[in-house]
Amino acid sequence: MNGFALVFLIAGLGLIGWLTARARANRFDRGGAKRLHSLPGQHGMYVAMWTVLPALLFVAGWNAISPGLVKEAVLEHPAAAQLPTFAFERNALLAEAKRVAHEEGATAFDPVAEQLVAPTRAAQSRYGWMGAGVAILLAFAGAAFAFTRVRPSFQARTQAERGVMVLLLIASLIAILTTLGIFLSLLWESLRFFQQVPITDFLFGTHWSPQVIDAADPGKSLGAVPLFWGTFFIGAVIAMIVAIPFGLMSAIYLTQYAAPRVRRWMKPTLEMLAGVPTVVYGYFAALTVAPAVRDLAVSFGYTYASSESALAAGLVMGVMIIPFVSSMADDSIAAVPTAMRDGSLAMGATTSETISKVLIPAALPGVVAGVLLAVSRAIGETMIVVMAASGAANITLNPFESATTVTKQIVDLLTGESEFDSPKTLAAFALGLTLFVITLLLNIVALRVVKKYREAYE
Amino acid sequence: MSNERAPTDWNAPAMQKRIRRRYARERRFRFFGLAAVTLSAAFLAFLLVTMVANGWRGFTRTDVALVIDFPATGIEVERAQLKTPAADLALAGAGLENLVKGAAATAFGDESVISDSGWLRVREAIKADPTILDRKLTIDLPASTAIDQAVQGDGNAEAKAAAAKLEQAGVLSRHFNADFLHKSDSTDPVAVGIWGALKGSLLTMAITFLIAFPVGVLSAIYLEEYAPRNRWTDLIEVSINNLAAVPSIIFGLLGLAVFLGSWSLFGYQFGPLLPRSAALVGGLTLALMIMPVIVIASRNAIKAVPPSIRDAALGIGASPIQVVFHHVLPLAMPGILTGTIIGMARALGETAPLLLIGMRAFIVTPPGGFTDPATVLPVQIFLWSDEVSRGFVEKTSAAIIVLLVFLLAMNGLAIYLRNKFETRW
């Protein structure tokens, strides 16, 4: 049975359970001095919970183990004896049989796989119906158990609310599970990578060319230093040279000089810069900015200018980052007590003197935190560099030359057709882990700075 | 005091000069501020203008009127087959493509004025009305990219000359390209459309919403209303704040490793849990990505509901669960929805994680369900941007316009909700 249909069926049973239990609780004798503990709806909730939860838990578990059971069943079929013993080919043939069994009208290329289609389909339907049967049975059993407890004296509210609390707790645990999942999956694949490539080669090697990996010494061509440099150069240097002055000056102008009307319109306009999808920026960078940058380089007499320069990617990324810097700076300037500003102005300082000598120093921790967050955003940005930066890993200080970044390499490594176990694929996870750790550190430092700063004025 | 300072002589030339210099610096500073704001806005304007200037052409198409005399060509198709699913095959087998090209070659002296996929329109016309096989037909076929651009003033001299000749013959016409809105990807820029990608986006968004919204709101309720202050709660809180700042591509790696990788647990081998390139996987991955955004927005909205409302409800005997679900949550809902829409807009524009989980396939048929291979609008834009064929530039920009219109609509809705339901307690 189809998974979605089963879940709908169980949900439907839950609804029926809820309605019947509520109807039954509605008929309780309310006369006399006896006060009922729970509302009819709470009895309904209790029954619905008992109907739905055990069945759904079973379905989730069954979905995890049934592919294994199907595989066992298929392997017991006489035709499976012809399968090759080598695990990779074996799994490929089984997967092919499974695909054909699923798709209407598809045919298998391999005769062995073709023979296995019928047994796969049979096993799938057998275990599918078995699972559905048990799930529905569980739903009815749960409903029956809960329904017998629906009595005037039963404290359904306590039980139902306990269930809701558990649900809330589970929802909030998903955040931890995601964090843990990210960290563990990155760590797991990275460890497999570091078994093949020494970690020192990866972190300190200066040669990056994943297209040609020497099987004997894969570490020789997987040194990530050029990527780290390129990421830093594009994200933390070029982009910030654009974003910090523009962001900071915009924030200063909008908070200190602009008329309220102008501010009301300009602030959301600037924020739109952050709302434009990065793929659009990437397209813009590749289509418009990169050729212009190359022409500029050529006019400077630099004849070997790349059309995939670090400058083009960095410039556009800087524009994207402007609103992050400006809104952080805006917040921290607004948090400086007005008395300090008024004091400075009363002493006869001009507005610009007040800003540069009083407001900015006082708001500095917030501004620094904003810049750190912006850097973390920039080095994690993917689409702009995928579309506008080059794949060639260089360590260069020349912005007109090509440079590549960690995120671009992750995409390049994972979008080719390659097996899951090669050092090439696993290297992407090692890069991902490095990126995760670095952005996490930047965020923690930024939050620390902000926290410290807030304590100073509130 | 013997060395008492003389009063400042404001009119002394040195002082006047100093004041002038200070005021000049003030004006300069102010000008730099204004320039920063203006230039930032100009960047945005330039970006939008470039996209619109390139993109509006993507919504139009040049057609060439072609006369085909079917009886004269002697095409042999069984009429009975034309109403069956085998019609496509039968017409292709009868050489319809060459027939149309031949007709174009005779009429215009050059078969390449018609786009490569132009004959498909003839096929659809025949399927809709088989009787046209018995007569002479005049049909508008999409012109090739070269002609299309020559008509708009672009392209090389050769194409321009060809276009001018067609113009003189009076067979050219320009139309709104409705196909762009209801066709899917193709290798021919004249025939591409965004419907497949748009449908993929909608399916992906549906999954994202169904998962991220309930989980995000429920965990916000727990953290804000019930969670005891202890190390576990702190851990959850720190996790959520960190997740909000994790680069999106990392979520792609997570999706790849967890949903699509094969992994073993207790010596038991699990296959890929979910199909590759499916809206289901994309939606799950994006849901994990925007969940923290929803949690943070919902917590702020719940925090903004004044305690007196909770106290009043508790005072008349409501249970803590009833307080939240009957009173706090409805009042916080506008804020929660605003945050959710902003998060969904972010998910709609996201590309990088979806590239990693394989949603970059060439998809010709729109996905029929959550587990079918699908692509989404931003990924479609990315794929088209890589195409070398000149005609894809305007199609890419046109798709960007559609994406931006969706995003603007969502952000506009968020702002409207915030303004309409903003409550001052």
From TrEMBL, chain A:
Keywords: Cell inner membrane, Cell membrane, Membrane, Phosphate transport, Transmembrane, Transmembrane helix, Transport. The keyword Lipid biosynthesis does not apply. It is found in: Cell inner membrane; Cell membrane. Its main location: membrane. The keyword tRNA-binding does not apply. It is a multi-pass membrane protein. Residues 229-446 form the ABC transmembrane type-1 domain. The chain crosses the membrane at residues 6-25, 46-65, 127-147, 167-188, 227-249, 270-290, 310-337, 358-379, 426-450. Pfam families: BPD_transp_1, DUF3708. InterPro entries: MetI-like (IPR000515), MetI-like_sf (IPR035906), Phosphate_PstC (IPR011864), PstC_N (IPR022182). PROSITE patterns: ABC_TM1. Belongs to the binding-protein-dependent transport system permease family. CysTW subfamily. Part of the binding-protein-dependent transport system for phosphate; probably responsible for the translocation of the substrate across the membrane. This is Phosphate transport system permease protein. It comes from Sphingomonas agrestis. The gene is pstC.
TrEMBL record, chain B:
The chain crosses the membrane at residues 31-53, 202-223, 243-266, 278-297, 331-349, 396-417. It comes from the Bacteria. It holds the Pfam family DUF3333. Residues 198-414 form the ABC transmembrane type-1 domain. It is a multi-pass membrane protein. Its main location: membrane. Keywords: Cell membrane, Membrane, Transmembrane, Transmembrane helix, Transport. It is found in: Cell inner membrane; Cell membrane. Belongs to the binding-protein-dependent transport system permease family. CysTW subfamily. This is Phosphate transport system permease protein PstA.
